[in-house]
C-alpha cells in the first residue's frame, strides 16, 4: 500500500509538473484532457479548487494548480469513479466547458435620490445563489474611488474606469444562467461603518447576448426585516443609474479556409504586358492569435502562419481554387480587429518545376526563382458575416503609376470551434451567445500599432426623428479605411453627450514602413502618402436608433490633410487630454481619494497634432430642423507622424468643384442644342422638351434633363454621378439575378415631398450605396444605385439609367391624368442582349440584339493598341533619325477625291448619266404627296428617328413601362442618349468612337478628360452588414402580430363589436407554409424554361376539371396558375439561362422546393384546421418595411382588408400570422396574412 501511494503521489507530481499554463492560449485545456487530465483529477481530488480559479489575464498561471499540488499528500482514494465521466466532446452541448473573456468599465452614474451621496462602488462576479449553486468563477472584488454626487447630478467619466481588463475564466453555457455580475453601492460615513446602500445583479447569460453598453438601475438594499415585509419588498426604490460597458465574449478557435482567389492585373500599369506573361503564386500570412505583432518578422510577427500556393496554370488566368487552412484563437472582437496579408509572387519558373506537384511540395526548402510583385492587406472585420474579400495589390515603389499592381479577390470561409474543441460541434443547434458590435475598447488595442483617434464629445440641436416623443435616440457611426465603429445609444436626447473615443489602427501593407522605421521617413512623401490617401476620408455620422430602419441625423467629413496640416501640437494620451488640461472649477473634496496612476502604454502623454472639430455643422440629414445641428469632436494620430508629413488636399477640392461646375455648363449647352435639333422634326415629342429648368416651379412635364452632377452627401460640393457608384462584393449565393433583385426590392421606398410634387430628382437626391444600406430605405434612384453597385461587384456590365415614365401624382387629392416624372432603373449588357432591371416592381425586361458585342471587344483592343503605340513612340523618340530624300524625289502626299477628277484618263470617256425610270415616276406624282413622302423618308433617316430594325417582329419586346431615356452611367463615365427618346427603339453601343460628329451616345468625359479630370468614389469600399439575428426577428414578428391584433380590436370596438381570434397551432402552421410558398415565389424567374413548361401544362388543363380527378402534378400547376398568377414577362426568354449554368440549377432547385411546399400544404387542404360550421378566407400581403405605423396605413388602403374588418357578423374569428425573413444588410422581407372564419350559409353549400 505504501508503494502504491508513493507511485500515485509521484504520478500526481508529474501531472502538475512545473509547466507554464496560459489561460488564453489553451494550454490548461490541453493539459486537462486525455489520460493526463484523468491522472491529474484523480490525484487532486481532495479539496481540489476550481479549474478556473484565479484571475486569468494574459500570461497568467492558474493559481489553483499550485494549491492542489500542495494538498496531494492528503488525498483520500476515490471510491465512486472520476469527477468527469469523459472528454468535453462526450458531454451535452450546454454542459461543455467554454472559455470566456471579461472586460468591465464604468462610463458614469446618476444620483436619483433626494440626498447628497458620498459613495463608492464594488463589482464582483459569482453565483446568483451560493447556497443552491456552487460558485465556479472566482475573481477578486474590485473597488472604485470615492465620489460625491448631489441630488439629481450625473457623473460622466472622461475616460472609462476599467475594473476588469481581459480576465479569462471557464464556464459552460448552462452555468451562465446561474452566475451574475454584482454591482454594490456603498455610502461612505466619516464616523460609523460604511452603509450597504444599493445593489444590482445582472446574469451572465443576459450580458453575453445583449448590448455591452448597459444602464443598470441600482435598487435600494433592504434589511432582513424589510425583506420579510412583502409590501416593502415589492416597492423597492431606485437610488442610482449606473452606466457601464461589460464585454463578455467566448474564446474560439476560428478555422479560416482561403478558397477561389483571383488576381486581375491593372491595365493602366506600364508593365501590364510583362506582368501578364509571367506566372504568379500567392503567399498568405495570417495571425494565430491577437498577440501577433504587425511589422515584425514574417510581416505579422513570429506567431503568424504563412503558406504559399502553387503557380497558376498556363491558361492566361490567375486563379487559385484552394489556398490553405489557418487557425486563429481569440474572441470575435480579436478576430475582427486582426488582418492578414496576401503577397503576390511573380516569375518564370521552368515548366517541369511549376507543374510537378511533388517538387512543388518541396519548394519551401529550395524555392523556385521569383520576386515579390506586390502585397495586399485585408482586414478581417467582416469575416464572420461575409466570406468575400477584395483589395488592391500594391508595390513598394515611389512611382505612382507602378504603385497599384491590380485587384485581388477571393473567399475566406470561417468556421468557429469553442476553445479546446478539436472538431466543430455538429450537435449544437442553438445560437451561441454574442453581444452587439460596438466601438473597440482600449483593452483590445495593440501597443505596437499607431492609431487614429476620433474623440466625440457631444452634439447639439439634432433633428427630431420620433415625432411621438419629440426626440431622437442618437448614436455615432464612424468610418475610416473600410472599418465601421458604433457608439452607445443615448435615449431620447437632442443634445447627447457621448464622450466616445474611436480607435482606428493605421495599418500599412509594407513591413518596411512599420512604425518608427527609417523607411517611414524616407518614403513619407511617396509610398506612405499613397497608402494613407487610399484609406479615404473620416466620416462621422449621427443616426437615430431603430431596429428595422434608421434616419440620419447628420454627418460630417474630415480629411487626413485636416489633421496633418495643423501647425501647433498638444499633449494627448490615447484616452484623450491630460488631467492637468481639464478645466474643473469645483473644489476637490479632501475625503475623495485620488485615482492611482497606472503606467500603461496608452496613458503615456505625447505631442500630437490635434484637429479641433468643435461646433462643426452636421449635414446630410433629410429631416426638418429649425436649428443648425452641431457636433464637437477632435481627431489626432497617436503616436503622431513626423512633422514634415503634410497633405494639401483642401485646395484640390475647391479646384475640383469649379472644374466640375464648368464641365456641367458645357454639358448643358450641348444638350440645349440637341433639344432644338430634336424639336424640328418631332416638335410634340418628349425629346423636344427643354433640358434645363428656367425656374424652380417647373416640373418634369416640361423638361427632359440630362443630369451629370450631384451634391456630395457630406461636403455638399458638386460631384460627378460616377462617384456615387462603387462595386460591392457579396457572397455567390446572393448574386443570382432573381434573388438579387428581390433583395434590393425589400428596401423600403421613401421619397421627399419635393420630388413627389415636381417629379424631378433633385441634385442632392443622389446617395451612395453605403448610406442607403445604413438607412435601409430610400428613393427609386437609391435602389438603382445600390443594385448597379451590386451588379458591378458581380462582374456585370451594369449602368444606372435615368429616364421618364408616366405615373399618377401620389400627392394629388383628386383624379387627374398621369404626369411625366423622372425615374431610374438599371441596365446590363450581355451577349447582344440589353436587360432592364426594375427595382420598384421587381421585374426584368430583356431586349434582344440591342448592341454589338464585337464592338466592345474591338474598342478594348484599340485602346490597348493605342497605349502600346504610345509606349513604343516614347521609347523610339530618341532613336528616330530623319530619313534623307533622294535627289529629285517627291514627297509623299494624300490624293483627295476632287484631285482624282482632274487627272488625265486613258481610254474612252464614260457615258453621261441618264435619268432612271424611278425618277420619271417621281415627276409624275402629285407635288404634295411627293413632298410628304420625301419628308417622311427624310425623318426616318434621321439619327433621332426610331430604328426600323427594332420595330420588326423578332426584335419587338413584350412591354416596357418607360417612356424616355436620357442618360446612363456607371463608376467610369456618363453617356447621353442622342437617338430617339424611347428606350425600345434605339441601340446601346456605348463603345462607339465618340470622335464622330453625331455619336449615338455622347460621353460626359472624353479620352482627354479622363487623363486630366480625376474623381474618387464617395465610398470606395462598401461593407454589407449580416442578416439580423433570429432572436431579433422573432421579437419583431411577435410585436407586429400583437400590434395588428390590438388595432383590429380597437377598430371593431369603436363599432361596438367583439373581436375573437383563432390561432390554433395547426392553422398557424398551414399559414406559415403558405407564406413560405409566396416568399419563395418572389425568387423564381418566370422567363425560365421550367416556368414556360409549367405554364403550358396549366393552359392545357380543362378549367372545369374536378380536383379529385387531378394528379398531384396537375394540382401544383393549377395552384401556380390560379393562386400565384404565373405570367411570362419576356416573349424572347431570358439570356441568363444560356450563359449561367448555376442560375439554371438554382431555379430548378427553387421549383422543386416550391412543389414540395405545395405538397405539404395540400395534405390538410381538405381538412383545413378551422372551427366547425365556418368557412375560411383571407389574403397575404408583402411589405418592404416592418414599421408598424406604415403597415397599418398600407393595410387600410387595401380593399380586401377593409371588407374583412368591416364584417357585421358577430360570430366570426380572425387569424393573423406574421412571417419575417432576414436579408443581408439588415433588410427584412415582411409577410402578413389576415384571415377570417365566417359562418357557412346554404348558398355556400349550393356553390360547392
TrEMBL record:
Domain C2: 432-574
Cited Pfam families: C2, CEP76_C, CEPT76_peptidase
Coiled-coil spans in chain: none
Record field: compositional bias (Basic and acidic residues): 11-23, 914-930
Gene3D superfamilies named among the record's database cross-references: C2 domain
Residue ranges with Basic residues bias: 1-10
Region ranges (Disordered): 1-68, 899-930
Protein's name according to its UniProt entry: C2 domain-containing protein
Organism: Durusdinium trenchii
Lineage of origin: Eukaryota, Sar, Alveolata, Dinophyceae, Suessiales
